[in-house]
């Protein structure tokens, strides 16, 4: 990375699982660099969803390096995810036709629930060997029974990784959503469900959805839980395949909890 900026820059890894992100600092400037980031970063920057894009450069090996404004700030904590501005920014993202057009142009085909279920069932068959935990069997049965109900009026750009660490609040009070590598076009219930289930007390779901601009309905809650459930099954298989048994067990318990509450919560 040093040859891109010059000798007066100090570049250090920014962490993360991919090892593709860096902090760059000179005497007068600071930048956040990333190799092969999301192709629609420019649109995200133009809409104020991520910190400002400064430049993009293509390397000789074909890699693309982007430089963004480095802002002092912090990631949101779980309690701060309840702030109305989180709901409003997610709504802005989901209602952006520019983001949707761009993601469709770069061949991110919309997620279809039936195709998602087909792939997950194949994973179950391949990676659970001769023993399938009861929670996985029950989840697979539920997902198949309700896949025909996974119909939404309009698919949108979904971030698909709404952990609180990916929400950044600058020292100037600007809220950003970063790390768009997993973004897909799909049902907004995928993103909404992750936030409501992980961060918002159920008694406040209706208020949160009001800030987002959507009414609570049994059909929405059903879709939310369906996508939460299939994600938990996929996570279980991912951990089990890598012999990370503690995390795999945690996902089994998550599946058990989802199955125990899904029908009663849908009808609240």
Structural class: alpha+beta
Sequence stretches where pLDDT stays below 50 over 5 or more residues: none
Could you name the CATH class of the largest domain?
Alpha Beta
Task: Indicate the radius of gyration in whole angstroms.
Answer: 20 Å
What is the residue-averaged pLDDT? Answer: 90
Textual characterization of the structure:
- This is Thiamine kinase-like enzyme.
- Keywords: Kinase, Transferase.
- It holds the Pfam family APH.
- The protein starts with a helix and ends with a helix.
- It has a five-stranded antiparallel sheet with strand order 1-2-3-5-4. Strands 6-8-9 form a three-stranded antiparallel sheet, with helices on one face.
- It has two domains: 2-70, 2-Layer Sandwich (Phosphorylase Kinase, domain 1), CATH 3.30.200; 75-266, Aminoglycoside phosphotransferase (APH), C-terminal lobe (Aminoglycoside 3'-phosphotransferase, Chain: A, domain 2), CATH 3.90.1200.10.
- It is an alpha+beta fold and 268 residues long.
- Helix 5 (113-127) runs parallel beside helix 9, helix 6 (134-146) packs antiparallel against helix 9 and helix 7 crosses helix 9 (218-241).
- It is built from ten helices and ten strands.
């Amino acid at each position: 990375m040093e040859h891109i900026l010059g000798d007066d820059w100090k570049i250090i890894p920014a962490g993360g699982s991919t090892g593709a992100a860096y902090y760059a600092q000179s005497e007068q400037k600071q930048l956040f660099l990333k190799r092969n980031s999301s192709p629609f970063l420019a649109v995200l920057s133009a809409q104020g969803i991520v910190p400002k894009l400064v430049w993009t450069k293509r390397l000789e090996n074909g890699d693309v390096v982007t430089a963004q404004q480095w802002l002092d700030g912090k990631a949101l904590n779980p309690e701060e995810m309840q702030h109305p501005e989180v709901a409003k920014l997610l709504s802005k993202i989901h209602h952006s036709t520019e983001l949707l057009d761009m993601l469709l142009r770069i061949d991110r085909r919309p997620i279809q629930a039936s195709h998602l279920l087909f792939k997950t069932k194949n994973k179950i068959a391949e990676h659970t060997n001769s023993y399938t935990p009861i929670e996985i069997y029950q989840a697979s049965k539920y997902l198949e029974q309700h896949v025909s109900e996974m119909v939404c009026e309009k698919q949108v750009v979904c971030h698909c990784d709404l952990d609180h660490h990916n929400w950044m609040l600058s020292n100037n009070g600007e809220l950003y959503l970063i790390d768009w590598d997993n973004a897909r076009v799909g049902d907004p219930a995928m993103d909404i469900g992750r936030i409501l289930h992980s961060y918002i007390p159920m008694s406040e779901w209706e208020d949160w959805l009001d800030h987002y601009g959507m009414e609570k309905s049994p059909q929405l809650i059903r879709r939310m839980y369906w996508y939460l459930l299939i994600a938990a099954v996929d996570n279980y298989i991912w951990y089990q395949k890598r012999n990370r048994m503690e995390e795999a067990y945690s996902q089994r318990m998550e599946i058990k909890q989802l199955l125990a509450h899904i029908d009663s919560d849908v009808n609240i």
